[in-house]
Structure formats: structure tokens, C-alpha cells
Design goal:
The chain is mainly α and about 70 residues long. It has a single domain, classed as Non-ribosomal Peptide Synthetase Peptidyl Carrier Protein, Chain A, CATH 1.10.1200. Helices cover about 55% and strands about 0% of the residues. The chain is built from four helices and no strands. The protein is globular.
Length: about 70
């Protein structure tokens, strides 16, 4: 799961995939903007056939946050 998330995130950031880990902050470390995050969330919703509530998206700060949510809800 982690590698799938890293692969997806690496499409939207200039940070090399090998430098992305569970503790990487989506905004501070990966320099993603809110549009990038929404696009990534939409990709995960399509990929896993789930719906991610807006309130939950606001709680995604690190790669680990995304990973934990997807593992519980996919």
C-alpha cells in the first residue's frame, strides 16, 4: 500500500520517490498544493472505489495519514 501511495504522490511532486516516506508532510515536504491533494484524493477514490469525506481530507497531513485511511476504508 505504501509504495502505491508513494507512486501516486510522486506524479505530483518534484521530490524523488525514494525520498518520500510515511512521515513526509504533503505540503511542507512534498510541496503539494490543495489542488494537488484534491486530485490525488480523487485518484484514490477512483482506484479503490471509495468516497473520502472533505472533513477527512483536511486531516491528511502526512503520507501515513493517507495510508492509514486507505487501509481502513478500501
Amino acid at each position: 500500500m505504501l509504495q502505491e501511495i508513494i507512486d501516486e504522490l510522486s506524479q505530483y511532486t518534484d521530490v524523488p520517490p525514494e525520498q518520500i516516506n510515511e512521515d513526509s508532510n504533503l505540503i511542507d515536504d512534498l510541496e503539494l498544493n490543495s489542488f494537488d491533494v484534491l486530485t490525488i484524493v480523487a485518484d484514490f477514490e477512483d482506484q479503490y472505489g471509495i468516497s473520502i469525506p472533505d472533513e477527512q481530507i483536511m486531516e491528511f497531513h502526512t503520507v501515513r495519514d493517507v495510508e492509514e485511511f486507505l487501509e481502513k476504508n478500501k
